[in-house]
Design a protein that fits this description.
disordered C terminus; alpha/beta; elongated
């Protein structure tokens, strides 16, 4: 036979058996390492959790404390009150942190991570939970509940956004009217700017013309000033102070005369009525004497008659 002739096949069965034994030993070693890593061979104890809904919980779900895996969910079942009884298996070495006031809750690792059961560390002055005891469950909001809550909060905002958009798009709204007015104002501003440009050009032209005329006038004035007899002007200016002094003296005399005249007038006015009265009396006596002489026999007159009063006395005050 070939096997009996080829030395490579000598002791083949022994080699296969040895290879199989080494493979099984390797598999056993891997299982042992995995079991040690996952605490499969460490002592454990069971705690119970009662929740109203089993949504989000699954068998085998990891149980973590401070982010470190300490156990898993081993069983889930409904009780007589239609609530969910969950059994969690925890390594015995972690029992020192799980006290009577410890709590558990269902959370997610990250925003889109897996769900886990998180255990909160209890107070050290509280007793440790014994196997089979219940641990308090803190209800957390699921994604659907969070979505509903967010939707309820966002809904008013969306309604306001819708109203704002409707207000903005309303052709008869204040915003549209304001935009139209701004457009109209912009067009008017363009026209106003064009008029202002024209006015500025005209003003510039007028200013240039005024500047030219002013320059010409200054030149003419300069020539006139240059043509003046400065010496004669200076002589005239030198004569002005004496003339002004004489004028001031004359004005002072006129003022004094006016004051004196005023004073005399004030003194004479009260005497005028008496003088006039006496003058009237004198004129009346003279008139009567003349009439008497005219009627005397020496001058060929008739009998003496009492002359009528030809002089009409007036009001002395008139």
């Amino acid at each position: 036979m070939i096997t009996q002739q080829d030395p490579r096949f000598k002791n083949l069965e022994r080699k296969i058996g040895l290879f199989t034994l080494l493979a099984l030993a390797g598999v056993a070693l891997v299982v042992l390492l995995v079991g040690v890593q996952k605490d499969l061979f460490s002592p454990k104890y069971t705690l119970n959790v009662t929740v109203d809904r089993g949504t989000g919980f699954t068998k085998g779900m990891p149980v973590k404390l401070s982010g470190f895996r300490i156990g898993r969910i081993t069983d889930m079942a409904l009780n007589e009150q239609a609530m969910v009884e969950i059994s969690i298996e925890i390594a015995k070495k972690y029992s020192k942190w799980i006290r009577s006031d410890s709590t558990v809750k269902l959370v997610k690792e990250g925003l889109v991570g897996d769900s886990i059961v998180e255990v909160a560390v209890g107070s050290l002055d509280k007793p440790e939970l014994k196997p089979g005891e219940s641990i308090t469950y803190l209800k957390t909001k699921g994604l659907d509940e969070l979505a509903d809550e967010i939707a309820e909060k966002v809904k008013p905002v969306l309604i306001e956004v819708r109203d704002i958009i409707g207000y903005v798009n309303d052709p008869n709204g204040d915003l549209k009217k304001t935009i139209r007015n701004l457009e109209l104002l912009t067009r008017h501003l363009e026209t106003t700017r064009s008029n202002a440009d024209t006015l500025l050009v005209s003003t510039t032209r007028n200013l240039e013309e005024i500047s030219n005329r002013t320059t010409t006038l200054l030149e003419v004035s300069t020539r006139k000033i240059d043509s003046l007899d400065v010496a004669r002007l200076n002589t005239t200016l030198e004569k002005l102070p004496p003339l002004l002094e004489k004028t001031d003296a004359a004005m002072a005399n006129v003022t004094a005369i006016s004051a004196e005249t005023k004073k005399l007038s004030q003194q004479a006015f009260p005497l005028i009525p008496g003088v006039l009265s006496r003058t009237e009396e004198l004129l009346f006596s003279t008139d009567r004497l003349v009439n008497s002489l005219n009627n005397s026999w020496l001058l060929g007159g008739g009998p003496v008659t009492v002359p009528s009063r030809s002089f009409k006395a007036g009001d002395s005050h008139d």
